[in-house]
Amino acid sequence: MTVKAETRSFYEQAVERAVRHIIARLDDALELRGLARHAGMSPFHFHRVFRGLLGETPLELQRRLRLERAAAALLGGDERVTALAFDAGYETHEAFTRAFRRAYGVSPSSFRQRAGAAPAGCERPPSVEITAPCGLHVHRLEEPLDLLFNQGAPDMNVVIENLPALRVAALHHVGPYQNISEAFGRLGALAGPAGLFRPDSMMIGLYHDDPDTTPAEELGSEAGVTVPEGVPLPSGLTEIKLAAGRYAKTTHVGPYDQLHDVWSRFVGQWLPSSGERIGDGPSLEVYYNTPADAPPTQLRTDLYIPLA
Prior knowledge:
Layout: H1 3-24, H2 32-39, H3 43-54, H4 58-76, H5 81-87, H6 93-104, H7 108-116, E1 158-163, E2 166-174, H8 180-191, E3 203-207, E4 220-226, E5 238-242, E6 245-253, H9 259-270, E7 283-287, E8 300-306
Antiparallel strand pairs: 1-6, 2-4, 2-5, 3-4, 3-7, 6-8, 7-8
Helix pairs in contact: 1-2, 2-3, 3-9, 4-5, 5-6
């Protein structure tokens, strides 16, 4: 087996273990950080790998299987819709009905009525399966799992670089990642008068949580600037040490609001097919210009993944 095949197998096995965990605890609230920890990855990386290989996040998989289970119950029994809503994890009948209608195109009651009516002509009987790239459905949860993993790697220009150890003066930000510009504004107000912006400085964003699985108001990140050793930091800024190491880097030129999709392809599809494994430390973005001095289409950002 090649190195790339072995590495892809490592990620596929980690995702399959997580899927088994979800199936075994389908009625429990997902402990997303625990899933990532058992997979040996940070939440930021794990959930993107999971989605890249299966086409949906752990939470989306759980919700879909619960809806399929509810649909199967509608076809085969007379349990009240309200009870099925609670079993599927919804707090109200209305919320369940909205989700069910989005998935099946009709309300739960209409779905049940269709099941009881004789099909006309070439009409197909109602199906509980909701389209899913991974091929896993509620009536196919027995072992061995037959998961369909995404085999395609995106056409990305990725290079492997050795970064030196970096000392970063940082300001912590909690909230939506698109609002980190507010933290960079406060960083500038503190770092500028202290003389921390030098010709060789790099503006860096450090990101710790996956925005697909963490509430926006709880996302943690840092806005930072690299500073030489020995330079004192002004009050209000925190020192972060990034160890030297190997990183995979891809460059995005364009608006910041496209970065989420770039990260998803980078971690979720390129990485499992690359022959590389994630190393310790956070992923980071390095910014070479800002909206103050370049139009959105010309903003250049380097994205880095730490490698083992």
